[in-house]
Amino acid sequence: MVLLHSEMVKLGTKAHDFSLKGIDGITHSLQGFAHFRVLVIIFMCNHCPYVQAVWPRLNELQKKYNGKGIQLVGINPNVGNPIFPQDNFEEMKRAPERFGLNFPYLTDEKQTVAKKYHAVCTPDIFVYNAKHELVYRGRVDDNWEEPEKITTHDLEDAIKALLKGKKIAEVQHPSMGCSIKWLE
Questions:
Q1: Eight-state DSSP code of residue 133
Q2: I need a labelling partner for 30 at 20 to 30 A (CA). Which of 21, 22, 116, 170 fits?
Q3: Rounded distance, CA 8 to CA 3, Å?
Q4: pTM exceeds 0.85, yes or no
């Protein structure tokens, strides 16, 4: 496992279009999420301990803000890597049962979407406003490993600020996690 920190993509960058199959059997695109006020794209996978640690927090955010114009979307860039069979499509489909997943989980088998977004680790988190402009990229909170010791809720604070029309904190801390397992 190689630990990496997310690349701090320039704020204001437009979200890149995609057309990816979900575990629900539906092909999802950026346009399909156009009606949400806030879109949170998370590059993630099943095997990464960093993702597994924050998965309950991500599920809780989706549950808490359900019906308030916010949508989380998981994209697995490791699905085609034979070294990690726990990230294959069949295992992805077990995510609702295994991890309590309550948001769309999509496959990026060719890793083209992860490359367009400059994702480098799992989880790698990007928050977009209603115009699909990047307003936050970074960590979920300040303690991925020990939830009882969390003192800042970076991702949720960004979502709250966006919903209230307030400015999101300029200081944003990169996410950290396992490296994406690039195929080439």
A1: B
A2: 170
A3: 16
A4: yes
